[in-house]
Amino acid sequence: xxxxVTLRRPDDWHLHLRDGAMLQAVASFSGxxxxxxxxxxxxxxVVTGAQAAAYRDRIxxxxxxxxxxxxxxxxxxxxxxxxxxxxxxxxxxxxxxxxLYPAGATTNSASGVRDFDKVRGVLEAMAQxxxxxxxxxxxxxxxxxxxxxxxxxxxxxxxxxxRATPGLRVVMEHITTSDGVDYVAGNDDIGxxxxxxxxxxxxxxxxxxxxxxxxxxxxxxxxxxHRLALRRAATSGDARFFLGTxxxxxxxxxxxxxxxxxxxxxxxxxxxxxxxxxxxxxxxxRLEGFTSLHGAAFYRMEPNEDRIRLVRREIPAAYPTHIPxxxxxxxxxxxGFPLYWHLEDPA
Length: 347
Ligand code: NCD
Ligand code: ZN
Prior knowledge:
Elements: E1 3-8, E2 12-15, H1 20-26, E3 35-38, H2 49-62, E4 70-76, H3 83-91, E5 95-100, H4 120-129, E6 133-135, H5 149-164, E7 170-172, H6 178-185, E8 190-194, H7 203-207, H8 224-234, E9 241-243, H9 252-255, H10 270-280, H11 287-298, E10 307-312, E11 322-325, E12 328-331, E13 341-344
Parallel strand pairs: 2-3, 3-4, 4-5, 5-6, 6-7, 7-8, 8-9
Antiparallel strand pairs: 1-10, 10-13, 11-12
This protein binds N-carbamoyl-L-aspartate and zinc ion (ZN).
Active site: 246
EC number: 3.5.2.3
Keywords: Hydrolase, Metal-binding, Pyrimidine biosynthesis, Zinc
């Protein structure tokens, strides 16, 4: 008997679509999602409501009419962000969240926050208005080992900010550790996105037997015990955990370099990979919660009405290894196993 699973249309609560030729090249690969929270780390970053609205319009224009994706925009928090601008952009329905990057933590984060006291006013206004704050949860202190930066962030930044700002609704983005899982599972007013690739790879995939730049992303994949904790969290049915692919395309030239940049491009094959992961965990009945229900509930939105279907076939689904992007190519994330789950859209 053919195995299949029907889900409400999934949402992607953390997505990089870039701009210009890269946006044109990658947007359609997320076209089958319902909604996506669009990251604002363009160069220069998206810091005003007007910039977010213009970027939203460029994204819409890059999507074919039959595609279902609706971009949900975010503002990039800087030390000079005016609380009134954030409130206005939210009240006008332009933005759904604000993104906080510690300065220097990841790709295009130079304009992020150094001194967290400087954003206190914005965070208080957001708490009052119920606007979610999405955190890149890593400290940037060079003295902290890169594999410990998420755990250090929880103690040094996240927990103090949450205590100082009651009611602030936060999303710990792309958690990679059991420390992240435990912190989120033990608290309220907090959610966490988990990426597809962090359910599949650990740090050996990046570093053992040769350095594999297409598995390098931030936060960097950790040791196997952490990957297993993420798989337990994602498949637990706990509504605090939901899908944010963090699909983050870079030109191959920029990744296969002496100083390669961080990011995995997982948009094309994410749903096939997730079906396989949930099947392995005996949790296919919880896939819909993770991809289509929990995130919407956190963002106080209705789940999508329409459905997609995933069907397990004998022959693996064919995904491109690379896609063209202007004069460049972008490598599609290789999970390292055949993908028997085929996406049927509509269901
Ligand atoms: C992201 C990017 O390339 O914009 N990279 C990544 O490795 N995830 C930035 C981010 O989300 O940290
Ligand atoms: Zn990201």
